[in-house]
Recover the amino acids of this structure.
């Protein structure tokens, strides 16, 4: 049975019960660690295709035995008291006559409900039935999967544009020409992404195909990439589709054949790319001047298979295998790292085509090797940026959602209660969570200012001890709540140019960390000075930080430990480091596992920092 508190606040209200019963969304309430149903509304029984008498009084596992993931999530809410959201949860509610499972897809929000002592009594779940949407989307995916597979596996590049010149699709083979992975292409404007193509042959061909609804073929040179492409554009109901082939090597080989040996060599020596020629068996017989200049080697060192020696050791076997395969397939295209004259390695792409004699046999190979280091680095930077964005959004959404959920629940309790003590407790809870939201938003704003270079300082010549004392007095209650005695040991008076607000922010962040990681143990704040610097130290007696993590914890989204019970964006120390560096100072940590941690900030006594 439900506790008297729950009965008084929920079941005594016939109006509330009527609302819950007739709500269009599935609602279920389960009590106790075995999650026994004490309430389910009509929408809920309709969703699982059962009658109320088949559900009430039974455990969740008895009602829906084929849903271990769902049961595990309810266990988690009951054990932790933390709300949990699940989107498109697949529930097996039975099996058809052929033994195939009958599934429903539901978006769940599971909320704990507690007694006045804060103990979890049970879990209330609210659902949104999304079966029709999920099945329709799956069907659409199945219908388009075959077409996408064909396009994705084409060796030629392929993309589509809508009537507003927005990319709607790009296959993997198009990445080199378009400059971005397909996932980053879709949704971008073609002429914004490639403004250099405006008024080119490609531009006019695509416009003709779009406006006149005809197929248009064009072969043209793309100077920005030093490549030749043959493109065919096709009209579609919603725009156009374009297939293209990189014919650079073929065009260069054709040009080479049309010139005498002397003129050919003159041309290749003037090219910025590294040009090479091999005999029919693949033995190198010629490199242009760029190869020797870039690699710092002689022609003799590279002849036959000697060129493999300038490749990165990890790339040699692969390059050799691709070359041997090309002797059969007559297509050579490979990326590898080349050791440059300065000893560094840079990524290059090598492409080659065979020259076929009148007898149909290969006479020689002509190819180019082009530096693509910048493209590789751009790709890595993009991937890192996307990863950082996803990490930030994941952490930020959790940190924002949790206090909002608490505020919402506490607001509901306040509205329903006439007990002044309950109102006072819920109001205090709301205030704490509003403060937490404020800290999260402030951190998000500061990280934005750091990223854009707009985190500026307003310097004043201040007594560091006064600034620290004011902050320590303000933070003492927080440390006390965490069971930490805050001990301040000021050194001699020292005036220096600092931004009072930002230095307070540094100390607040460091003390907040100690309240999280050093609970129940004393915390020491100390100021001192030497000849050139004022020193501010915050030392705790907590769990400590491994030496290998001393640098990592000052990066974005990093924490000293992986303790899931400790909240935060993982931005505090990153912001602290940037504030200290703006003051031309430094911060370091001295710590070992089990021996606590000491954060030491050094601030120059004089600075030329401009704000």
């Amino acid at each position: 049975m439900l506790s008297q508190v729950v009965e008084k606040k929920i079941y005594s209200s016939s109006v509330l019960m009527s609302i819950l019963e007739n709500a269009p969304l599935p609602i279920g309430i389960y009590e106790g660690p075995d999650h026994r149903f004490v309430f389910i509304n009509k929408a809920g029984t309709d969703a699982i295709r059962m009658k109320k008498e088949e559900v009430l009084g039974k455990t969740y596992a008895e009602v829906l035995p084929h849903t271990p993931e769902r049961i595990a999530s309810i266990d988690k809410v009951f054990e932790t008291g933390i709300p949990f959201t699940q989107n498109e949860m697949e529930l097996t509610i039975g099996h058809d006559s052929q033994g195939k499972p009958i599934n429903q897809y539901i978006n769940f929000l599971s909320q704990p409900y507690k007694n006045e002592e804060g103990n979890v009594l049970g879990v209330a779940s609210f659902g949104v039935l999304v079966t029709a949407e999920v099945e329709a989307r799956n069907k659409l995916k199945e219908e388009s999967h075959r077409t996408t597979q064909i396009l994705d596996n084409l060796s030629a590049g392929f993309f589509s544009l809508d009537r507003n010149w927005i990319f709607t699709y790009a296959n993997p083979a198009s990445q080199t020409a378009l400059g971005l992975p397909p996932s980053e292409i879709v949704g971008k404007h073609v002429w914004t992404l490639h403004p250099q193509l405006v008024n080119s042959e490609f531009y006019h061909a695509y416009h003709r195909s779009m406006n006149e609804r005809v197929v248009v073929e064009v072969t043209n040179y793309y100077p920005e990439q030093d490549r030749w492409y043959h493109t065919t554009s096709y009209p579609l109901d919603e725009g156009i589709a374009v297939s293209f082939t990189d014919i650079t090597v073929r065009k260069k080989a054709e040009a080479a054949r049309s010139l005498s040996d002397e003129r050919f060599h003159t041309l290749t020596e003037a090219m910025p790319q590294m040009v090479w020629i091999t005999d029919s068996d693949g033995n190198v017989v010629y490199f242009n001047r760029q190869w020797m200049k870039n690699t710092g080697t002689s022609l003799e060192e590279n002849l036959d298979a000697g060129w493999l020696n300038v490749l990165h050791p990890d790339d040699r076997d692969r390059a050799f295998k691709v070359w041997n395969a090309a002797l059969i397939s007559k297509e050579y295209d490979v990326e590898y790292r080349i050791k440059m004259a300065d000893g560094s390695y840079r990524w290059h792409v090598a492409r080659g085509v065979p020259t076929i004699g009148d007898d149909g046999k290969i006479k020689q190979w002509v190819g180019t090797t082009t530096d693509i280091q910048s493209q590789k680095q751009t790709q890595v930077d993009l991937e890192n940026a996307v990863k950082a964005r996803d990490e930030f959004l994941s952490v930020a959404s959790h940190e924002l959602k949790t206090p909002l959920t608490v505020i919402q629940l506490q607001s509901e309790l306040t509205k329903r209660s006439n007990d002044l003590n309950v109102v006072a407790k819920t109001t205090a809870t709301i205030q704490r969570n509003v403060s937490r939201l404020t800290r999260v938003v402030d951190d998000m704003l500061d990280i934005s200012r750091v990223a854009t270079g707009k985190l500026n300082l307003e310097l004043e010549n201040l007594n560091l001890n006064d600034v620290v004392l004011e902050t320590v007095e303000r933070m003492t209650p927080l440390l006390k709540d965490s069971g930490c005695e805050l001990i301040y040991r000021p050194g001699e008076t020292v005036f220096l140019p600092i931004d009072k607000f930002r230095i307070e922010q540094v100390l607040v962040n460091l003390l907040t960390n100690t309240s999280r990681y050093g609970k129940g143990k004393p915390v020491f704040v100390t100021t001192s000075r030497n000849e050139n610097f004022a020193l501010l130290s915050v030392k705790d007696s907590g769990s400590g930080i491994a030496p290998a993590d001393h640098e990592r914890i000052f990066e974005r989204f990093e924490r000293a430990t992986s303790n899931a019970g400790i909240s935060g964006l993982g931005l505090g120390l990153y912001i602290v480091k940037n504030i200290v560096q703006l003051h031309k100072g430094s911060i370091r940590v001295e710590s070992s596992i089990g021996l606590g941690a000491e954060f030491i900030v050094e601030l120059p006594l004089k600075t030329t920092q401009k704000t």
Observations:
- Residues 333 and 413 are 67 Å apart (CA to CA).
- DSSP finds 20 helices and 22 strands in the chain.
- The first helix runs from residue 4 to 11.
